Amino acid sequence: MESQDDSSPESTIVTTKKTKTPSRMAELQKFLTDKWKIKELIATGGFGSVYKAYDNYKGKFVAIKVERKNSQNLICSEIGWEAHIINKLKGCPYIPTVFYTKVSKECSFMVMELLGPSLSMIRKNGHQFSPGVVAMIGKQCLYAVQALHQAGFVHRDIKPANFAVGLGDKIRTIHLIDYGMCKRYRDKDGNLLSNRGEVGFRGTVRYASCKAHLSMDLGRGDDLISFFYMLYELMDNHLPWWQESDVNYIFHMKLTYRLETMAAKLGSQMKTLAKHVSSLDFSSEPNYELILQQLTNMMTENSVTEDTPFGWEAWLASKG
């Protein structure tokens, strides 16, 4: 359940390089009957595979995430866990829609709306963002993270690769994806769960909080520290440790480059944001309104409005 770097497939529902594996596709097609027609493989990884498919009943393309077969009890199914969390977030425009889920010993899969590229993929295609546009991106990402937190979960792997833009009329909407590493921080009655102490590393090294490096139980503040690192990278193009591969050295650099120190060159709003998220402990309630206000102020200061182009709209439209 850990991700050591940011080189894994971009997401479970993001369109990537087209690859075909006929035998696997034919095997999966048996379980899908005639309702969904598999078209191509989108991504594959430790979780399983994601396919682009055509929904013959709805008359549109969808994404189908298929879990690798294992001997674990079905209650441990990652597909089932992801679907459970996403269904808790119904109604939030920054969360992808799940149309159908099936968990079985033979084949577990989830049918979801098909999304476009992740923020990470957009950057890799040469797109750079002004501070004001990064703030506009950040607001949508924060709305999604806040919704997840309010539902009683922490994500534990916030990074550009786990935010994907929509397609068609959702091309300006950013979606939080990949919920397999999520955990509850509240019980079903809304009570805070106890800090479990040392539990093992969770997340992606580049964006992980110092507590994650120490293998500690993660809370909402850790998601927001990863969120800060993500915004910093989008604004400054690279994090200070982007060329490093040694996990311990990256941890040492994070201890040296405190968030407020990093934020100093990005303006007063980012410094205020950094100061707040740095102050949060495991049980702290984040001040989302404070963070949103800083992002809004940054947009205003840079003459960016909610109608300002992100920069990827024309690129995606040209790709069809």
From TrEMBL:
Residues annotated as domain Protein kinase: 36-299
GO MF annotation list: ATP binding; protein kinase activity
SUPFAM superfamilies on file: Protein kinase-like (PK-like)
PROSITE patterns for this protein: PROTEIN_KINASE_DOM (PS50011)
Superkingdom assignment: Eukaryota
Name of one Pfam family that matches: Pkinase
Cross-referenced PANTHER family: CASEIN KINASE-RELATED
The name this protein goes by in its record: Protein kinase domain-containing protein
Species per Swiss-Prot/TrEMBL record: Trichuris suis (pig whipworm)
